[in-house]
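fold-stage: in
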Amino acid sequence: MTYQEWDFIADTYIPLLGVYFVISVVKISRNRGWINVKQSIVGIIVSIGFIYGLMWLDDTMNIWPRFGLDYSTHTALALVFMVYFSRQSTTKFILATSSMLLYCLLMVYQQYHSIMDILTTSIMTLPFIYLAQLKTLRTKM
């Protein structure tokens, strides 16, 4: 495949996760009511707010560049959805984790980010993402 074809795949990954999230929320709300998905939606919104807040902080204070790195918004956003989907079932955990790893490999292959960019972003964002979605982690959807 060409660079542009891989680029297209990489560019559609996060929007597809977002669409799948919306479909999942609608499906769960139809079966169990909106009250059961409200916390999931709040967890996702708070997580995304944190991701972009950290991006702004990095842009303002040049945190990652000081270490010769780049904050990976791609990684952080993908992790938000990975956490949500991975808690639904063992199968979805395996699929979410596998797709995330493949996405990371694609970002490195396409030279969007280095492995260190991805690792440092993950280390800095994943704990907060889990905390933001913690209330919904207590019950399986």
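fold-stage: in (second)
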Amino acid sequence: MNDEAGMKQAIEAAWKAYENGEVPVGAAIFHEGQLIAAAGNEREQQTDPTAHAEILAIRRAAAVLGRRRLTGCTMYVTLEPCPMCAGAAMLAGLDRILFGAPDPKGGCCGSVYAIPEDPAFPHFCLCDGPYMEKECRTVLERFFAEKRNVQK
């Protein structure tokens, strides 16, 4: 399994979120090279402010593995995780996060802060990115351009 294939799975999940009218962020988690969970944002569908792609993918991966610790796993996500998602990834014990588009306003895997890599916390999760930024940004830009056009 390579990073490009992993990110393509996250991008696919983002497009599904887009089709469902959600902010199109997608996440995919791989364990030992195998896809074990993927999700797009479902905040509107679930009326749940915590139903971010990363949180849903983490929950699904834990269920597949039958454990709360996701050691040996890499999460691919199309947008740099927010504080909640970065914290959840770190607490889940993911080995690595690879994000597509950076979020200079709220990204917590290096842009504003690096929660998963902060030595103040008991777990360390390597953050890498941006990766395949153009492909990841495309779905977000299309979604928000359509939202602006509808509002005019």
